[in-house]
Amino acid sequence: MRIVPLDSFPADGHAIVSGEDARHFLRALRVRVGELWIAQDRAGRRRRARVAAAGKTEVELELLEELDPFPRKAVPLWLATAAPKGKLLSQLVRGCTEAGCDRLLPTRFARSVRELEERAEERLRRCMHEAVKQCGLPETQTIAAPTDALDLPAPPEVERVLFVAEVAARPWIELARELPRERPWLLVIGPEGGFDAKEVRALGDPPSHRASLGPQVLRLETAAVVATAIAGQVLWTAR
Fold first, then answer.
1. What does the CA dihedral 163, 168, 172, 177 come to, rounded to 10 degrees?
2. 115 pLDDT above the threshold of 80
3. Any idea which architecture 3-67 has in CATH?
4. Which of 105, 117, 196 is nearest to 154 (CA)?
5. Which superfamily does 77-237 belong to?
6. Are strands 170-171 and 3-5 parallel, antiparallel or unpaired?
7. To 10 degrees, the CA torsion angle through 81, 84, 86, 87?
C-alpha cells in the first residue's frame, strides 16, 4: 500500500497534498479517488487514508483509523563521513538514509580530498527527502554543520565506532550485535586515503571501538552504506 508523507494529521480528519508530492502522485502514480493509502506524519505515526479527491495540482485525503506506527530503532544511528569525490556524495546520502541513518555529520579529516561547501547542504536535504519518500521512513533525519574529525561527539555521549582496514579489527556484524544500546551509535567513515595516526588513536581507542567491513577494499560511499545498513538492521530488530 502506498505511503504518503504528511507534516501532521489535521484535526478535521482531512489532509491536502500539494506541490511536488502531489505532482508525483498524480502524474507518476496516477492515483484515483477511492484508493486506500497509508498516511504517515514526520514522527512515524500512521493512519489509513482514502483518496477523497484528485485535482490537477492537489490530492485530498480522508484520514481513517490509526495504524501501528513505523518501527523505531533501539537507539538513533549517526554517521560521520568524509565527502567522496564528484557527485558521489548525493549517492552516499541517499543510500545511507534508506539504510537507516538518522543524523549525518559531514566531517573533515587530515586526508580529506574534498571540502563540503555550505551551499551543498540544501541539495543533501533534498536527497534525504527523496530517500525518505522512496522508503516510507518518518522524516526525522538531520544534517549537522561540517566539523573536524577530532571534534566529533565522543563517549559517553555516543557509542563511537571507527571503521579501519586492520586485521585485528572486529568484523562489524559481530561487534554490532554486542554494542550497548543505551545511546546513539556514531559510525565514522574516513576519506579515500584513510585516517592518519592521530585520528586513529583519538577516534578509535577505548572507550571507542574499531571495526572492519571485511578484507576487500571498499569505496568510501560503499563503506558508508554497508556500515549503516548493518547497524540499521541490528537496531531495528533489537527493539
1. -130
2. no
3. Beta Barrel (2.40)
4. 105
5. SPOUT methyltransferase, trefoil knot domain (3.40.1280.10)
6. unpaired
7. -50
First to last CA, the chain: 24
Strand-pairing partners, residue 17, are: 59
Q: Which residues pair with 53 in a beta bridge?
A: 60
- Return the number of other C-beta atoms located less than 10 Å from residue 70's C-beta: 17
In the chain, what are the domain boundaries?
3-67, 77-237
- Report the alpha-carbon distance of residue 164 to residue 95 in Å, rounded: 21
What gap in Å lies between CA 193 and CA 29, rounded to an integer? 43
Q: Do 224 and 167 form a contact (C-beta atoms < 8 A)? A: no
Rounded Cα–Cα distance for residues 80 and 188 (Å): 5
Dump pLDDT digits (tens) for 180-227.
Answer: 999 999 999 999 999 999 999 999 999 999 999 999 999 999 999 999
Q: Which residues pair with 59 in a beta bridge?
A: 17, 54
Rg (CA), the chain: 20
**CB neighbours of 21 closer than 8 A, spacing ≥ 6?**
4, 5, 133
Report the distance separating Cα 67 and Cα 219, nearest Å: 40
Q: What pTM, to 2 d.p., does this model score?
A: 0.88
To 10 degrees, what angle do helices 88-99 and 120-135 make? 40
